[in-house]
TrEMBL record:
<dbReference type="InterPro" id="IPR029046">
    <property type="entry name" value="LolA/LolB/LppX"/>
</dbReference>
<protein>
    <submittedName>
        <fullName>Outer membrane lipoprotein carrier protein LolA</fullName>
    </submittedName>
</protein>
<dbReference type="Pfam" id="PF03548">
    <property type="entry name" value="LolA"/>
</dbReference>
<dbReference type="InterPro" id="IPR004564">
    <property type="entry name" value="OM_lipoprot_carrier_LolA-like"/>
</dbReference>
<keyword id="KW-0449">Lipoprotein</keyword>
<keyword id="KW-0732">Signal</keyword>
<feature type="signal peptide">
    <location>
        <begin position="1"/>
        <end position="20"/>
    </location>
</feature>
Length: 214
């Protein structure tokens, strides 16, 4: 589970120190972005995740699709499906036709896809960097730096659309030389969702092996 989410989200350790001086221009943009996402009942996004490490000569691309509603999400990516209804986590592996069921225990060292729009609010300094075009769209680029110096991540860059304040991409820089870039390819606000959207229905997976780890 953590291995998959590490390709989607930032691995962080939230600091408990006093708030640092923040860049007001960056803060205003981040607040507008956060308000946009928190006003949605749900959203769906298709994405590309790229892992690069120059020293190791690594470049890997993954694609996926995620539906998010509050703290709930359903993620489809590279032969796996991960479903979280807020209390239970299902991890389905297509090749094995197997699903692992566990209690959902939020990890404060990991930011899930449902938390990206509030990441900056605790444990980070943020600075406005520049304007830049992404996919032909003008964006504000904002840099986040963890206040905890022991964090494996030393920098995160967010690109926020100037037109509608949506997140277009983010890039995570880790001390081990890995760079993770998460790019939104398609975004759908308020898709129809029900409780069933965030539940694993084994009747739809013929012959699935169920391993309950709770």
């Amino acid at each position: 589970m953590k291995k998959i989410l590490a390709l989607l989200a930032f691995s962080v350790t939230l600091a408990h120190s006093a708030p640092a001086q923040q860049d007001p221009k960056a803060g205003k943009i981040l607040d507008q972005m956060s308000a946009k996402y928190q006003a949605l009942k749900a959203f769906n996004a298709s994405f590309t995740q790229t892992l690069e490490n120059d020293a190791a000569k690594v470049k890997e691309n993954l694609t996926g699709d995620i539906t998010v509603s509050g703290q709930k999400f359903r993620l489809k990516m590279k032969g796996q499906e991960i479903i979280n209804n807020g209390t239970t986590l299902w991890t389905y592996m297509k090749a094995e036709n197997e699903v692992n069921i566990s209690d959902y225990e939020p990890d404060e060292e990991e930011v899930s896809p449902s938390q990206i729009y509030t990441l900056y609010k605790k444990g980070y300094k943020y600075t406005y960097v520049q304007e830049a075009k992404e996919g032909g769209e003008l964006c504000d680029v904002i840099e986040l730096s963890p206040e905890d110096r022991n964090n494996a991540v030393f920098k995160v860059r967010l690109s926020v659309s100037k037109a509608d304040k949506s997140v277009k991409s983010w890039k995570m820089f880790k001390k081990n030389g890995n760079r993770y870039t998460f790019t939104i390819k398609k975004f759908v606000p308020n898709p129809p969702v029900t409780a069933a959207t965030f539940t694993f229905d084994k009747s739809k997976y013929k012959g699935v092996k169920v391993i309950d780890l709770r």
